[in-house]
């Protein structure tokens, strides 16, 4: 019997293991107002304890609850004891980066410095609550410091940045690492203050974005390296990382980008993050993205930077998105003659201009904005996130259900310039495929039943808009079918679809130049992005065995070899799609 796409994505129709999790992260900003857990609200005005203990939307209880408090001055041990009466059959593990740091210092002087830093800047604290009958402790504490500023080799509290967490495992099931983190910001803030020297970005993204991505990638690598050495991360391990990851909004021309999302999309950078580590091939992913649309920066909720105690209550009837700020700014142009900046170029003054244009709305929403002391890194952003790492072979078998549709932000919470972020999710891990693990064998098996599926998204007859791409040449059909066989596993829920439909690509995904009748859409046969002809020149094409071993396939600038041979080295009959 033929299988439909709906059947393929229905997790209840396939065997496997199901897990239900609840996440909460809240940067307390070392606020004296938030020294007690009684001052931290749950969702919908409920007490924190009640929100943590409430069942999921389907009436079931979470298998694990993970809470992280960056810049905290709470007594996390007391909170753990208090919650122990609410979760009598669960194991509660409270962790403190300050306590872990003090234990690992070789001298009393360094330990004293770390203790003073924690009191001055706040502590990175986590609390893991899990079903003791299902999960067992899998490893020692996962802990590391992330250098922000150093003076004479000593980390300066600005505030103290670190990550701390714990690993658990299910007998015969998956292994999970729950890690809370507070990433550095000083270097990123200085980077955003600087003018981008690049004035043209026709062939690559702006240098500011690339440098910002590398800063976040360094933090992700530190977490991954420490976790790998602590809990022996393998192909059956999922690492959850949440907290203040200090991702920022970048304005480039008329578009906005989120640094962390751009890291996820950068496959060479993802490979560099785990290069040299004894790990299976894997990637970092966004947990809270319920669809491809929510992977855009404009769709992310604003969790920073708010007034800790505004004079008037913020008028937020629904979630505030980064795109809402940009939309308000576009309605009132106070600088009509000011240059908007070229696409792909970072201009620091653009951030202040945008905030001035949207100043009235920002004040109504409770966003913090001081004209005299504004810096680009204080532009509204979504730094408080939940992400995960998994081996590619495991991620292909993972599917997610987000009962609440994604992140839930409690905009009513006061006392900090961040807002608490909640996330409920259900994870399904399908059993391993029975066929051989050989990639060639898998591709051969998948080609046999292509007729059970529709044509490529955005290029079939069922699309809402006619495709602007040229018709496929008969000799290129085999190439498309081979590519479709390779990408078919991406239909699984929770996987990032890596072929951008024409209808979703108004601009080139590399140079951001709008498509038109003269500037045609093309697709890179490696990453699937929709690019223009200039960002996929013929001298970068090469043969890809799984696409077409006989002729070169189109590649974008990011995926082409570092040293491309000349165009004459390739046959002239390449597939131009």
TrEMBL record:
Give residue ranges for domain FYVE-type.
502-564
Under the heading SUPFAM superfamilies, the entry gives:
DNase I-like, FYVE/PHD zinc finger
* Keyword Zinc-finger listed: yes
- May I ask which residue range the UniProt record assigns to the signal sequence? none
* Biased composition regions of type Acidic residues, renumbered to the chain: 445-454
User: Which Gene3D superfamilies does this UniProt record tie to the protein?
Assistant: Endonuclease/exonuclease/phosphatase, Zinc/RING finger domain, C3HC4 (zinc finger)
Pfam families assigned: FYVE
Q: Where is this region: Disordered?
A: 433-474
Q: Which UniProt keywords apply?
A: Metal-binding, Zinc, Zinc-finger
Highest taxon above the source species? Eukaryota
Keyword set includes Ribosomal protein: no
Q: Which GO terms of the molecular function aspect are on file? A: zinc ion binding
This one is known as Slob1 protein
């Amino acid at each position: 019997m033929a299988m439909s796409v709906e059947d393929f994505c229905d997790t209840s129709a396939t065997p496997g293991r199901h897990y239900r999790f609840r996440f909460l992260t809240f940067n307390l900003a070392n606020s004296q107002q938030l020294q007690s857990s009684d001052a931290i609200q749950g969702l919908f005005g409920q007490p924190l304890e009640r929100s943590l203990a409430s069942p999921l939307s389907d009436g079931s209880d979470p298998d694990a609850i993970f809470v992280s408090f960056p810049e905290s001055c709470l007594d996390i041990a007391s909170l753990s004891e208090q919650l122990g009466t609410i979760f009598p059959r669960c194991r509660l593990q409270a962790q403190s980066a300050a306590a872990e740091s003090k234990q690992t210092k070789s001298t009393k002087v360094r330990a004293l410095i770390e203790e003073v830093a924690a009191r001055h800047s706040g502590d990175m604290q986590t609390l893991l609550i899990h079903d003791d009958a299902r999960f067992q402790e899998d490893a020692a504490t996962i802990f590391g410091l992330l250098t922000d500023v150093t003076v004479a080799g000593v980390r300066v509290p600005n505030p103290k940045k670190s990550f701390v967490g714990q690993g658990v495992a299910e007998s015969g099931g998956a292994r999970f690492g729950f890690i809370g983190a507070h990433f550095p910001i000083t270097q990123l803030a200085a980077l955003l203050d600087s003018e981008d020297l690049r004035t043209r970005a026709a062939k690559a993204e702006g240098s500011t974005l690339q440098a910002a991505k590398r800063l976040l990638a360094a933090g992700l690598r530190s977490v991954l390296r420490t976790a790998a050495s602590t809990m022996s991360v393998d192909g059956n391990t999922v690492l959850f990382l949440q907290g203040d990851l200090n991702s920022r909004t970048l304005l480039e021309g008329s578009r906005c980008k989120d640094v962390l999302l751009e890291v996820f999309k950068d496959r060479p950078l993802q490979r560099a993050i785990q290069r040299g580590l004894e790990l299976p091939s894997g990637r970092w992913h966004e947990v809270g993205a319920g669809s491809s649309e929510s992977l855009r920066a404009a769709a992310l909720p604003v969790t920073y930077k708010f007034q800790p105690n505004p004079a008037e209550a913020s008028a937020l009837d629904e979630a505030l998105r980064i795109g809402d700020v940009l939309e308000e700014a576009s309605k009132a142009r106070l600088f009509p003659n000011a240059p908007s900046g070229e696409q792909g170029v970072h201009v620091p003054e653009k951030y202040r201009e945008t905030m001035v244009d949207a100043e009235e709305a920002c004040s109504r929403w409770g966003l913090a904005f001081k004209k005299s002391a504004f810096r680009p890194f204080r532009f509204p952003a979504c730094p408080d996130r939940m992400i995960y790492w998994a081996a590619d072979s495991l991620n292909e078998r993972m599917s997610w259900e987000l009962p609440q549709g994604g992140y839930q932000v409690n905009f009513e919470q006061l006392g900090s310039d961040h807002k608490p972020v909640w996330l409920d999710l259900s994870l399904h891990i399908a059993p391993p495929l029975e066929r051989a693990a050989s990639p060639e064998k898998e591709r051969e098996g998948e080609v046999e039943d292509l007729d059970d599926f529709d044509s490529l998204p955005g290029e079939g007859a069922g699309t809402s808009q006619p495709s602007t791409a040229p018709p496929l040449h008969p000799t290129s059909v085999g190439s498309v079918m081979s590519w479709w066989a390779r990408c078919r596993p991406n239909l699984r829920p929770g996987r990032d679809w890596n072929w951008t439909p024409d209808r979703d690509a108004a601009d080139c995904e590399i140079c951001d130049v709008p498509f038109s009748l003269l500037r045609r859409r093309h697709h890179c046969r490696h990453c699937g992005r929709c690019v223009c002809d200039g960002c996929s020149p013929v001298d970068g094409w090469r043969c890809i065995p799984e696409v077409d071993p006989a002729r070169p396939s189109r590649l974008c600038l990011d995926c082409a070899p570092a040293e491309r041979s000349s165009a004459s080295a390739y046959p002239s009959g390449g597939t131009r799609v």
